[in-house]
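Figure 2 data, in text form.
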Amino acid sequence: MWFKNLYFFAFTRKFSHSQDELEKHLLENTFTPCGSTELSHFGWVDALGKHGSSLSHVANNNILLCARKEEKILPAGVIKAQLDEKIALLEAENSRSATKKEKEQLKEDIIFELLPRAFSRFTDTHGYISPEHNIIVINASSRGKAEDFLALLRKSIGSLPVTSFTPEIAVDETMTDWLTDKDFVGNFQLGMEAEFNALGDDGAVIRVKNQDLTSEEIKVHLDAEKYMVKVALEWDECLSFILCDDLAIKRVKFFDVIYEQNDDIDSDDVLAKLDADFALMAGELNRFISELLAEFSLTTDSYLEND
């Protein structure tokens, strides 16, 4: 339930679907397991997992969703070994080299034969919509997985007017300024981990850990025209994280002071605990994202179009 990696996007038009309307749309793309000859399936599952009973869950006007992906695992080495064997046999029988089309067909046949015996890998991706803050927040380890989540939601409801946050001043410039001549606007503090890149595709990459980021050693890198592209930060004595130069948030860790707020909930009441944890987490993340965007002179409604 507690998100670890964040990609967040701005709505360009107010999200106005009621939960009932949204639920009907999601039902059209519920998750079903792969058939014996299918490589993957992607669809919606109960937002609260096995303890839930609907594809969406609402707490404090935040709407939680969960997308599940099943992927058949076919080791590339196994496919290659069988393909090489079949190509050699074909070439021996016909006394000629196999054509590109024949090789592609042989590979397709091998995959088709192996699929019924392949193991499956299941991945759940959670995200929530905050209509009040005009954002959608996705717990994904990569932008590609976040985009897949958005694509499934767009397919389900017909349209999804969202966009990435893009500050006027490049993110890496602002992040680098934090080490030189700019104080934070909000409740942020520097951690002790960062990554710096020099200009150019072949520029040097410097990674530091357990390092005072205001030290002379770091100043040397800044003087050599290196830009900070990742930095460890803490926020409001609530959580720590790594900020990347595309505004992705990695390795989110909530502090005990947050978890303890729900300690009075009976652990045997699983649904109540999940609901309370989601409400608490979403509330803190909404506040956190708003303050983070303020550091880049943005707001959560920056991209809303005028009606």
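Caption note: The first strand starts at residue 6 and ends at 11.
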